[in-house]
Amino acid sequence: MELAGGTGPVDGVVRRMRAFRSGWHPGDGVAVFNRVYLTVTEEIARQIDTGRFADPHAAATLDVLFAERYLAAVDAAAAGLRTPACWRPLFQYRRHPGVRPLQFALAGINAHIGHDLARAVVDTCVVLGCEPADVEGDFDRVGDTLVALEERIREDLMPGPDLLEIADPLTHLLGTWSLERAREAAWAAARVMWGLRGLPDLAEEFVKRMDAGVGLVGRCLLTPLR
Questions:
Q1: What is the pLDDT of residues 195-217, one digit of tens each?
Q2: Dist CA 83 CA 94 (whole Å)
Q3: Which residues in 139-152 are b (16+ Cβ under 10 Å) and which e?
Q4: What is the mean pLDDT of residues 171-196?
Q5: Residue 178 gets which letter from DSSP?
Q6: In angstroms, rounded to a whole number, what is the distance separating the alpha carbons of residues 99 and 170?
Q7: What is the largest distance, in Å, between two alpha-carbon atoms of the chain?
């Protein structure tokens, strides 16, 4: 399977994210998140291609199914359809002049990790015919890549010293959210969803509540600061 440089499934989602760059203004909130997520996806593709994952096929499956949930939200918004609650704040506030780029980036990461990652784990298990424990190593490596890039993302998008007065409330707001905690919650949610797969009504209710809760956090992260 070709990955980072070929025509494989990971390369397909990377191409889609690259294509968005020409259609969105750089200051658009979704464009800000897209740049961040593109960097992450390219890095994961590189790691798969260079043998950093024990099972490249499983890692690629998880990465693609994960990315496709974000791409589906983009497609829904473009078509004027209702997006999942977790993504709704980012699409609603994407052009708000009082929201900083770092807020857009972390609101997108919150939606994608808090809701999409857990569902992608379940999707992957269904496709591969395995249990969540079988993809836990791939899940951890994807999460480690995200955590490693988070500090760089914050440094790149945080206002400089000349904007410290503005950065003070931003620092306080963003200090309330942790990617590491979001990743842990996503794994726990995936295990619950897998355990509920024989109880469709309960599973649907759980996903609905999870989606709404992540969306509420997203709205808080996008609080306008000016």
A1: 999 999 999 999 999 999 999 99
A2: 14
A3: bebbbebbeebbee
A4: 88
A5: -
A6: 10
A7: 56
Instruction: Please state, in angstroms and rounded to a whole number, the distance separating the CA atoms of residues 150 and 3.
Output: 23
Residues in contact with 132: Cβ distance below 8 Å, sequence separation at least 6, in sequence order? 121, 122, 125, 187, 190, 191, 194
Phi (first) and psi of residue 25, to 5 degrees? -65, 140
Quote the DSSP letter at residue 116: I
Round to whole Å and give the CA distance between 198 and 128: 18
- Which whole-number Å values give the CA distances from 222 to 48, 96, 191, in the listed order? 33, 9, 29
Residue 18 reports pLDDT greater than 60: yes
Tell me the DSSP string of 64-106. HHHHHHHHHHHHHHHTTPPPPTTTHHHHHHTT-TTS-HHHHHH
Q: Is 26 exposed, middle or buried (0-12, 13-18, 19+ CB in 10 A)?
A: exposed
Percent of the chain with pLDDT over 70: 87
